[in-house]
Amino acid sequence: MQHDENASGPTPDGDVGADGVSRRTVLKTFGAGALAVGAGRVVRPEISVRRTVGHLARGQAAGGNVVKIGYVTPETGALADFSQSDVFVLDKVRSSAPFAQGMKIGGKKYRLEITVVDSQSSPNRAAQVAQQLVLQNKVDIVVTSSAPETTNPVASTCEQLHVPNLATVVPWEAWYGGLGGNPVSPTKSYPYSSMFFFGLKEFGGTFLPMWQRIEAKTHAAKIYAAMFPNDADGNAFRAAWPQYPAALGYKEVDGGAYTDGTTNYSSMIEKFKSSGCQYYVNAPLPPDFNTFWKQAVQQGFKPKLATVAKVLLFPSDVVALGSLVNNIATDAWWTPFAPYTSSLTGETAKQFALDYESKTGREWVQSMGSAYSLFEVVVAALQKVSDPHHKAEVAHALHNLSYRGISGPINFSNGPAPGVGIVKPVGIQWKQGKKQNGRKFPWEPFVVDNSLNKAVPINGDLEPTNP
Question: Cys bridge to 5: 81, 108, 166, 416, which one at CB 3.0-4.6 A?
């Protein structure tokens, strides 16, 4: 599953690059700027860029002893689950020494200030509030998280205005393609834009080792069911995913490009059953997966292992399925089981999660780690500059940063594209909760595969979804 992340140079239409992905596939996949989570359409704000860029790039907008950080997040709308830990995370960040006491940058002490705005899970709104942060709030840096619908318009707006920006929880190919880059030949740099997360290579590197282990244990046939809807996410996966399992000898059975909101999946289920599918992968809307999986159980479709993308990321989705969620696997980009600590306070990932559960009464969520790391990265970058109001200098520091924090080590200078840092996910399965540290939740994620990240210990057995 390895490929040359440093491959460069254009490939003719239809030619296969070093990672086995054709240019035609990538253009088809990323033409809408989307992968795995949503369309993420880049929206150009209606502003006069020429009249503002020069002024902002010289760092004259903010000035003074305050470094202003804007945070664009989907507090409301379809993506609101991603931001459910934001209040807790921001309280943690603001109480850390650099934010509570200020920090020295270039020999001068500065106060750090965070302004939070809601993207409302809308690309148009995300572009609008990013513009407002820059032109009205005069922020020095913009950070953003959670799906292309939020991150891509923010990056596009900030890149036009020459304002350093940092994104997370978006596959890097979707983010980079949304800015206009070609993920097959990711040589073009967007100097004011940086991000950290992972991409299709890591999806494959997480799901497929679990398939192979279940295959070795059960001798299941190498045939898998693909549930990809007729939307930006589903079409992206349909175009780019199959090459990874195909390289290992797995045969795909595509259930068909169904419409979002479909309520009857009987024909798809029958196709999977009659084809002998033993593995399952998807990229549907959460309510659609809920409906599909209940019908699959009722109609006797029982794959040996179900690996899901885009769904079952949060406990609320899991509880809605009840016992039917047992041993369904997915990816996890952050867990409290990792041996990582905050670069702001020294708090461990485990302490961070337990504090969240104690203060909110809710189970930890993956997005809390990545949201926190946005501000860790900003502080680490500011420590490298002489003037936090110099936009180009801050952006350069972000592009070349190598740091370690609550999300582990992230190096922005050697990623698959300029300014991209890769977080290595692990494979998890949802299982019945165990009483630990005086609390128990109905369903908990257990790390069952660490093929991509040996630093995260395995704490659960990889078991067939259906024996």
Answer: 416
In terms of domains, do 441 and 307 share one? yes
Same domain, 322 and 418: no
- 409 and 350 in one domain? yes
- Check the CA dihedral 391-393-399-404 and report its sign: negative
| Helices 286-298 & 266-274 angle (0-180, nearest 10) | 60
User: Does 22 fall in a domain?
Assistant: no
170 and 69 assigned to the same domain: yes
Q: Tell me the residue range of the domain where 365 lies.
A: 49-198+341-422
- pLDDT at site 209: 98
Tell me which of 15-19, 131-135, 383-387, 439-443 is least confident: 15-19
Q: Which two tokens stand for residue 300?
A: 């006797």
> How many Å apart are CA 382 and CA 398, to the nearest integer?
9
Q: Name residues whose C-beta falls within 8 Å of residue 317's C-beta, 6 or more positions apart in sequence.
A: 81, 286, 290, 311
244: phi > 0 → left, psi -120 to 50 → alpha, else beta; which? alpha
pLDDT digits (tens, 9 = 90+) for 146-163: 988 899 999 999 999 999
DSSP state of 467: -
Residue 435: the pLDDT is 64
- The mean per-residue pLDDT over the stretch 166-184 comes to 91
My answer on whether 269 and 215 are in the same domain is: yes
Q: What is the CATH number of the domain that holds 314?
A: 3.40.50.2300
227-286 tens-digit pLDDT: 999 876 687 788 889 999 999 999 999 999 999 899 999 999 999 999 999 999 998 888
Q: Are the C-beta atoms of 223 and 278 separated by less than 8 Å?
A: yes
Same domain, 215 and 178: no
- Residue 258: what are its φ and ψ, rounded to 5°? -75, 165
pLDDT at 417: 96
Q: CA torsion, points 455, 458, 463, 464, in degrees to nearest 10? A: -20
In Å, how far are 99, 216, 340, 347, 437 from 92, measured between CA atoms? 10, 44, 16, 10, 21
Cβ atoms of 101 and 95 within 8 Å: the answer is no
Regarding predicted confidence, which is higher, 205 or 16?
Answer: 205
Same domain for 78 and 210, yes or no, is no
Domain count, the chain: 2
Chain centre distance of CA 271: 31
Query: Does the CA dihedral 126-127-128-131 come out positive or negative?
Result: positive
Task: Report residue 104 as tokens.
Answer: 């020295």
